Amino acid sequence: MAVSSPATLAIGLITATAVALGPATAASADPKPTEAQLRAQLKQLNGKVDKLIEKYNLKRVELAKAQQAAKTAKERLAAAERTLETSQQRVAEIARLRYQNGDPSVPAFMLPENGAGAAVIEQLTIEQQAVVESVARARDERKKAADEAGRLATRIREDAGEVAGQRDDAEDVIKDIREKLEDLVPFGPGRNGDGSWAPELPTGADNITERTRLMRAQVQKNFALPFAVGCFRAGASGEHPLGRACDFMMSTGGTTPSGANNALGDRLAEWALKNKGKLGVKYVIWKQRINLGSGWRAMENRGSITENHYDHVHISMF
Which of residues 269 and 174 earns the better pLDDT score? Predict the structure, then answer.
């Protein structure tokens, strides 16, 4: 039976969001969503996608358990069938000896010393019947487990397809919201009509330019940064002493970032380059590469993780 409660909620949320973001007629057009509203929608949809993925993974775990139960039952059946075969061979040997001797009783050499042949036959018959019954039970258990695993596999395939479709729909809306958020990235001050940028002096207690300050604020708004941000640095080379650069740390102490923070650095670098025309980004350095706006190129080895920019994304401004 497909579980549809979270899925139904997701469809409702996606549909409502799509309607809110979709085109409207001039007569009935709603006000354009604010940045705060878009970010709230994005957060809600991200949470919904996470729940759908969690539901999918739980179903996969259920299937694995059912498959293991079927395997265990099959192993029990095989062991019981081997026991049955041994017992059948014993009984067949007794029957063969009876036939050869033309005597319905058990041969003397197979009887205990007290000559209780009937008791031996009865015991063998009881043992045989017990083995047959245990094999029948094992076969029933295996069939039950196999049938259950099959039903569960079918249900999971159906549910997984449904969940994956809803996840894709939600991610489409998330993509649309993110694009709209990117449209809200403001233009940096000092942009000339021909697209060039007028020089700026550093201001304020942080000793950076207005463009650099705006870029830093936008990064902090759009990314959950794990570590400190460093901008003005006296005595350094490049734009840092001019107040026109910031370093966004992805790790500390000159160590290699975790996989998640490395991916975050990739996204941050990509975002800065995508919005360079709006913000006034001059170049980005990340993982011993520099991008001046026309693609990444390798840089010389400066001898350390920090100097090679493996632990932080460097963004320089015009």
Answer: 269
Give Rg (Cα) of the chain.
Answer: 37
What is the biggest distance separating any 2 CA atoms in the chain, rounded to whole angstroms? Answer: 119
Cross-sheet strand order for the sheet of 312-317? 229-230, 245-249, 312-317, 281-285, 289-291, 296-298
The answer, yes or no, to whether residue 116 has pLDDT greater than 60, is: no
Selection from 267, 279, 76 nearest residue 178 by Cα? 267
Helix or strand holding residue 290 (H, E): strand 289-291
Domain boundaries, the chain: 5-183, 210-317
In the DSSP assignment, the letter for residue 255 is: P
Alpha carbon distance 270, 253 (integer Å): 24
**5-183: CATH homologous superfamily?**
Helix Hairpins (1.10.287.620)
Query: How far is it, in rounded angstroms, from Cα 303 to Cα 314?
Result: 17
Query: How many other CB atoms are found less than 10 A from the CB of residue 70?
Result: 21
More confident residue, 108 or 121: 121
Q: What is the pLDDT of residues 229-265, one digit of tens each?
A: 999 999 878 899 999 999 999 999 899 999 999 999 9
Beta carbons within 8 Å of 186's beta carbon, 6+ residues apart: 214, 218, 278
- List, in order, residues 6 or more apart from 274 with CB less than 8 Å away: 182
